[in-house]
Amino acid sequence: MPTPNRPAKGGFDRVSVIGLGYVGLPTAAVMANRGMSVIGVDANPHTVERINRGEAHIVEPDLDILVRSATTTGNLRAVTKPEPANAFIVAVPTPFKENHAPDLAFVESAARSLAPVLAKGNLVILESTSPVGTTEMMAGWLAALRPDLGFPGHSTHVDVHVAYSPERVLPGRVLIELVDNDRVIGGLTPACGQRAKDLYSLFVQGTCFLTTARTAELVKLAENAYRDLNIAFANELSLVCEKVDVNVWEAIELANRHPRVEILKPGPGVGGHCIAVDPWFIVDSARDVTPLIQAARGVNDAKPAHVAQLIAEAARGRNRPSVACLGLSYKADIDDLRESPSVEVVAHLDAADFTDIMVVEPHIDKLPDVLAKRPKLTLTDLDTALSKSEIVVLLTDHAPFRSIDRARLAGKSVIDTRGIWR
Ligand code: SAJ
Hints:
The strands form two sheets. The protein has an eight-stranded mixed β-sheet with strand order 3-2-1-4-5-6-7-8, with helices on both faces. A five-stranded parallel β-sheet has the order 11-10-9-12-13, with helices on both faces. The chain is α/β, with parallel strands linked by helices. It has helices at residues 24-33, 45-52, 63-72, 105-114, 134-145, 174-180, 190-200, 213-244, 248-255, 279-285, 291-316, 341-348, 369-372, 382-388, 399-402, and strands at 14-18, 37-41, 76-79, 87-90, 123-126, 161-164, 183-187, 208-212, 322-326, 356-360, 377-379, 391-394, 413-416. It folds into two domains: 14-206, Rossmann fold (3-Layer(aba) Sandwich), CATH 3.40.50.720; 223-416, NAD(P)-binding Rossmann-like Domain (Rossmann fold, 3-Layer(aba) Sandwich), CATH 3.40.50. Strand 9 (322-326), helix 12 and strand 10 (356-360) form a beta-alpha-beta unit.
């Protein structure tokens, strides 16, 4: 479909987003709905096809409506290979490898794929959560592939501006936070940062703060490590409370009445593709000086096995009972199972201890691979699970679980990892 002509937008007549996932697709759709001409690039042809049909391939409130309207107007078009544009926003995954070392293969392949279409005056922004120094590395890859163009740090003149600006959106509120949140923008030079700010100013209502690329990279990692550490404190406190027979939820609620204390909530562990992953990027670049960050990861990662042990102990008090495990996604009211501690708890259960392990997850219609072939384990509905179980374990605090009639829990062993039924 041809892209219609429209007035120049601060020199950003056409913007390309590389990687149409949890961050890239909403960003592309928001810009397109602001009247910008956007080319979305994704290596997966099925993703591209679906988007061009006006469908969102990920679940996020209102995203489907936005994608439909963006493709209907022709402002958003998805392709599998980069095309020339004024600006490129790279939003590809940055997972870690076996040893927790960051895996930058997707960033590198994005750089390789966009290098041939780069032109003088272009802007390249990396948004993926990345170890400090990745934006400089990306400029290096581009400079090697395009010796005819000047890149910051590699030439006396700059033909292509390069900057880093991390996404900060919360799954479930992505479309709101994409526009409203403040942004940190780090240019490889001040002019690079300013150029990136000009682009974000076209759709961001929050304040855009300029800094260096290295600082912006660290800021993103620090935000998520800060949260991981604070959740680890809450999780450690929950273990202490078990030992000294204190209700952790009441203790935290009362401690938080102090004007300068704000303890987060304990749970079955920390999941998702951000908080459980990003602190390792700091550790990888400064292992010797990060005992606290490493300890927090250890505390949060150990929590699922501990919850499974509590369930096993409850089972020992009964004769091979049926257990209902409520919730698999990593947090409430979303369908995302990535790094989910709830999945891990269920995976830790020993089938020999139970007659039946019933799992209730209203947002999925089939069990994830890691649980699919486990003996005695079934995906079932809430009503059946509550009727048949002797042990009920609350793993993810989805809305339908919050409103369960407490009378239905009477006489059962209840393990509420999120404190919603107290
Ligand atoms: N959790 C607790 N106790 C709490 C809060 C969270 O156990 O008090 C658990 C959740 O159940 C979940 C995990 O932590 O398993 C993470 O959930 P979350 O809602 O805190 O965060 P995410 O991973 O969905 O999104 C985060 C956000 N980062 C911060 O709040 C610092 C978001 O703003 C980032 O954009 C996103 O990571 C990202 O992409 O980095």
